[in-house]
Amino acid sequence: MGMDNRIECIFFSEFHPTLGPKITYQLESGFISNEESKQKLLPIMSTLLEELNATGACTLPIDDSNTIHLKLIQLRKDPPIVQEYDVPVFTLCKDHFIKSQWDLTTQQILPYIDGFRHIQKISAEADVELNLVRIAVQNLLYYGVVTLVSIFQYSNVYCTTPKVQSLMDDKSIQEECLSYVTKQGQKRASLRDVFQLYCGLSPGTTVRDLCSRYSQQLQRVDERRLIQFGLMKSLIRRLQKYPVKVIRDERSRPPRLYTGCHSYDEICCKTGRF
Amino acid sequence: MANINTTSIHNKLTSTQTHDRLYCAAANSYANMMFNPLAGSPDDRKSMYSQPQNNVYKTGDKTSPISVILVSSGSRGNKLLFRYPFQRVAECPSSLTAKQRSPYVLNTSGDGLEDQDGDSREQSPLTDEQLVAGFSDIILATILATKSDMCGKKFELKIDNVRFVGHPTLLQHPPIIQVSKTDPSPKREMPTMILFNVVFALRANADPSVISCMHNLSRRIAIALQHEERRCQYLTREAKLMLAVQDEITTMTETDGSPQSPFRQILPKCKLARDLKEAYDSLCTTGVVRLHINNWLEVSFCLPHKIHRIGGNYIPPEALERSLKAIRPYHALLLLESEKALLSQLPLDCSPAMVRLIKTCSAVKNLQQLAQDADLALLQIFQIAAHLVYWGKAIIIYPLCENNVYMLSPHANISLYSPLAEQFAQQFPGHDLPSMLAKFSLPVSLAEFRNPLEAPAQEAQLIQMVVWMLQRRLLIQLHTYVCLLVPPSEDEPGLRDEDPPLAARVGGRSLSTPSALSFGSPTSSDDMTLTSPSMDNSSAELLPGGDSPLNKRMTETLLASLSEHERQVILNIPAAQNPEDLRMFARLLHYFRGHHHLEEIMYNENMRRSQLKTLFDKFRSVLVVTNHEDPIISIFQSPME
């Protein structure tokens, strides 16, 4: 049952049908078995039902000493694991956050999240342990505050996804894109230029190639932000390279990193090349 | 800006200083995931639930049921007839009867973990068995056997970490036996069952589509049982058997004192119990359920989440259905198993049309050709194809041909040690999968593999390998898409931004080819056989050749949907001076929205690839071309993000 569904019925008081915590007050004080307090159950239930459906939260005193606080929490999907070569980028404007609402670790790393630093770099520069940074970013990911993209290099190869056509169909994405990728202080980039740039990305073309080929289109467009936006909205995707050691003789050890499970980015991060 | 919800899990992260406390902070799965540093491939994620522990039962993933329960309500009250897997009877039953237990009190001894937010003493999450074992038979009977006004609808109940889903069904009362006034014998009280409920217990965080699939299965079983009950009181008989065994066991344990699970004894005696057990086992493994209720009625069901898995993710059923509605006659059907294997799986009374289709199906034939070869209507082909795809027996691809461009799928498992690599080496000795896959790192067309100096057998083997890789969703096919984008005019900057792109303006010109509407009952549509796709535009009316006024007017009409500025720019292109080219361009204008790929235009307009490519080249100043996979069938290669 999601946030949009109305609560159809509240079963027993111990079994709460919504996503809130279990109510245990009644059990402890013998609320239900007590005849007098049982009369109060019906108005309590109806108040709960109305208020939760209306506002999603409810504070209700049951008796002199007990009060229930309930809130409907939106269940989100489990966030993926954050790797040290992932780059967090804010999906919403950074200034909208009230920093004090977040925990200390997150507050410490927030200034270093700029959409270009990867986790390992953030950990080094903010002087926070790597796993803590990973957990903190994963938490931000869970709430949709950040999203993950890959490290930007001019040697990277990207290619378009079918979603790139939404740039042509959807006016809101167009607006968002054009304001995001335009170079600071320049006139707004044209949709045609931006779309041509995205379509110019293909397997076999590095970002450097793109810059030299489409230099005219890039006059008003910041290519780093272009790539960033494309990755955030899944208009393009990164092609990762995976080295695989194929030739094996009896003397050589089985490959540890060259198994096809670890990308170049990951290997470079792990061996300290970044 | 909504309030950022800092849950109590979050608060735990702030106050911890040492790693130890962090690691046992939250019972939430994502914190537990942090342990596995090499969890690159999504398949590893499944193993995180099964941590080394003493329990025999591993926790399943979110698409498997935890338990199946059958309850009934009748004149003898609410009864739990059967449940599987069996509850391990840990406590001595004599102690149970000693305590005065209210049926509504939760059995807290079954819960290992307390609330989700607290620091758990135990580090491992609850196993599935423990989740449902905490509920005793009596409690389950009480909560799952609903009142009659809840019958015939979906029943869903979430308690802590368990979600119960079922479809309570009302049984009609048997006809009242008329007692004549002259008959002195007393009326015998027949214990009647009023309603029953087949319930599946799932993990609480199961996907809504999984929940609705389970509900569907519950409903199907209920329909079969209801029918059998009306016909020969099957359910009442089975219920009597089950209750009899339960009573027997309880009296036995009271005298002997040794705890036993009554359900274990029920299994050999009761066909229905065995059916329910089989349903549960199938759901947990293959996802395909085939039951024969009372050896008479067949209930078949498949859980798409188990069948359509790629990597660690599954394809959501709604996405699957959307794709299936969008397949076109130029697509092809690729069987995922060999023809023999598939035919042997079909039931004896399956439709001969399906058998014919399977026999004539091939990776190089598109659906229209298949319709002709198998002598079936195109709509029927669509429906059978959709059916096969739904059951995970086939996928939709673009028919194999030399010009197809393939590339590695983003979700392909390229690990050296994957089971696929092993299978490949067995199937194609002398070749290894990683080397083969490396050839497809960048898009490559099949024509590039052709080597006239090689023996033709090599080429045939290559095709086989490509088909093998397509079946295992390792490759995706790239198509060319074209979009019309005219360079903005310099002298009217204000209007530039307001011009909606062509895509928004040229709308509604749908190609009315029949699509597989719903895989179920065939419709009695009249346009069943098609020889060529019907289109409701005027392209077919354009007369070939000649600069007749009729053609000119047609071209003008077609270009009328463009803005003045766009029209000017197009007409200024040198190639537009050639009336043939301009006519072709105008005719194909509505394809230039980025949603129709080259092959589709070729099929619909009966044109050659070279013609189209030349046209694109001539008008390249106003067209933007890109290559990506077909979103309709890419669902079969990679699940939705």
Automatic annotation (TrEMBL), chain A:
It comes from the Eukaryota. This is GATOR complex protein NPRL2. It comes from Nibea albiflora (Yellow drum). The lineage of its organism: Eukaryota, Metazoa, Chordata, Craniata, Vertebrata.
UniProtKB/TrEMBL annotation, chain B:
It comes from the Eukaryota. It comes from Nibea albiflora (Yellow drum). This is GATOR complex protein NPRL3.
